[in-house]
Every structure is written in C-alpha cells, then in structure tokens.
Specification:
With 322 residues, this protein is mainly α. 64% of the residues lie in helices and 1% in strands.
C-alpha cells in the first residue's frame, strides 16, 4: 500500500510476491525454523538466541523496511506542497474504530494461535500483555495529539495503538504486564514523532505511516525484549538453559530487569542486536534491488509519461470527489 501510485500494478504485485515469498520465509526460517539467529544462544552464548515471538521484526520491521526502501528510491506519488503536512482527517471515525477493533481481534488470534505458544508459556499473560500494549500506545498517541493540535486525533490515536501492538509482539510471553504497557506507550509516542520526521523533515511521502507504525516500533520492540524479559517464561527456549540458566534453576528468557532470584542477562540484548543487524543488511539488499529497478524504469520508453498520467488521473479523481 505504501508504494501505491508510484509503480504499476504488476511491479507492485512482483514486489509483494518477492517480499512474502522469499524475504519473509528466509528470515522467518532464521528466527523460527531453527536457523542461525535462533541458534545464537547455543552456538555463541548470546542469551537464548534471537527472539521474536509474534513478529515485531520478522513481519512488521521487515515489511516496513522494504516499504521505506521503496519510498526512498521511487520518490513521491504526486507533487507535494511545501510547509508542514497536516495529518489526514478520518472521514468516518466509527468505521476507523471498527477496523481497529477487528484488527485487535485478529491480533489476539495470531498471538494466541502462535505455534510457538506451548504449555510452558503463560497464555493469559500473552492476552493481558497484548491488551496493555495497545492501550498504552493508543493513550499516549491520543494525549500527544491532544497537546499538539488541541484535540485528540482519531487517526493518530488508532495508529498509536497499532504501533504499540507491533512493538510488544516480540515479547508478549516474556515480559511482565507493566513492561508491555511501557513498551506500547513508548511506541505510541514514537509514532507521531516518526511521522513528523519522515513527512516534514525528510520530506518522504509515507501516507500509510508504515515507517512510524511498523518499522520504528519493530526496532523498539526487538530491543525492549532484551531489556525487560524477566526470566519467568521461556525455559529452554531455542534449546538454551533446559536444566538451569546462568546457574539458576528455572530461569528462562532474561534481559536486564529480571525478577528477584534470577540473574540479569546482557547477552540477550546482544542477540537482539545481531538479528536487527541482519534485517538491516536485508534492507540494504532490497534498496540496491530497488535502485536497479529504478534505473531500468528510467530507461523504459514512456515510463515517466505513464507516471505523469497516473498523477494527473489521481488529481482529476480527487477534484471530482471533492
């Protein structure tokens, strides 16, 4: 969606196929299929290996990074006016709320139906942490928009809730409830700040806020697990610490802030950083591929004319709608 009106539909379809059919399975195997990222704990002693329970990085950061590469390479959809860019208004707030509610139900289904969720992980804590993360993100984004615009913005608030879900997805079973609330709240604050940075300062055309809603919260969520995992869940995760971990019996996935009686584990954050670095390298490869595609399109006869025609058609449609 973020690349719509920049490329023709067949190219968008091809990019979607390559992302969902190659990049996602490749990185997903590294994380969830016993690949090298999941084995960082066993092979290099970095915590329990790279952990991403419900896809903060594997799904959302990966997709957001591919979209960001496309936004940078292929430019804006239409000519944009100078000056601050106001957030688009929600034409049907109730419909937007209904969409967010359905998304929340779907997210609960994905999290609670995750095949990684076995009997050793707390099912109720996953559901509670999910609800707290969306609450924190929505509330902070609403308060921020209230202070900056004089009234809570429906779109910013709902996007803040989604950002909170994205950020907390990596760590639903591994962090205490207060940490999930904090993770979601920080993501809700990062959302409007990222939108301002991308749209106003960097002048990038990101109408779906994919960078603020998926990419940046994905980064924060991966790192937050290495900070807030308390050691009570994930015993033997990725084959690490099946009997005891760091000399403590019963200690699971741990970060810096663990419960009393467990040992903090700084190496878990290092494992998360390695996984983040692998994603950045993938983004670099995607950016280079998009650059090559952009050069081919520049050499294609009539490519620029088609782009101008598409922009003009979009403007005429918008004027008729208004």
């Amino acid at each position: 969606l973020s690349l719509a009106k920049r490329l023709k539909f067949p190219l968008l379809l091809l990019i979607s196929f390559l992302t969902g059919g190659i990049l996602y399975p490749l990185f997903g195997n590294w994380v969830w299929g016993g690949g090298w990222l999941s084995q960082l704990g066993k092979n290099t002693g970095l915590g329990h290996g790279f952990i991403d329970f419900a896809g903060s990085g594997t799904v959302h950061l990966l997709g957001g990074g591919v979209a960001l590469a496309g936004i940078v390479v292929f430019g804006t959809r239409l000519k944009r006016r100078r000056g601050p860019v106001a957030p688009p208004s929600v034409h049907l707030p109730l419909l937007a709320l209904l969409g967010a509610f359905l998304l929340l139900i779907g997210w609960l289904g994905v999290a609670l139906g995750n095949p990684l969720l076995d009997e050793t992980l707390p099912l109720a804590q996953v559901a509670l942490n999910l609800m707290l993360s969306v609450s924190g993100g929505l509330l902070v984004a609403a308060i921020y928009s209230w202070f900056t615009t004089g009234a809570p913005e429906t779109l910013i608030s709902l996007r803040g809730g989604v950002a909170g879900l994205v950020a907390a997805s990596a760590s639903f079973p591994f962090v205490p409830p207060w940490a999930s609330l904090l993770i979601g709240a920080v993501a809700g604050l990062l959302l409007p700040l990222t939108v301002y940075l991308v749209e106003v300062r960097l002048r990038l055309d990101d109408p779906t806020a994919v960078v603020g809603m998926h990419a940046v919260p994905g980064v924060w969520g991966l790192l937050a697990l290495g900070l807030f995992a308390d050691g009570r869940s994930g015993l033997g995760w990725n084959g690490v610490g099946i009997g005891d971990y760091l000399g403590v019996s019963g200690q699971g996935v741990s970060g810096y802030l663990v419960v009393s009686g467990f040992q903090p584990d700084a190496t878990q954050l290092y494992a998360q950083l390695v996984g983040l670095g692998a994603l950045i390298l993938l983004f670099g490869a995607v950016w280079l591929a998009f650059r090559g595609l952009g050069r081919l399109l520049a050499l294609w006869p009539g490519a620029e004319m088609e782009r101008v025609k598409g922009a003009a058609s979009s403007r005429r449609h918008k004027s008729r709608t208004l």
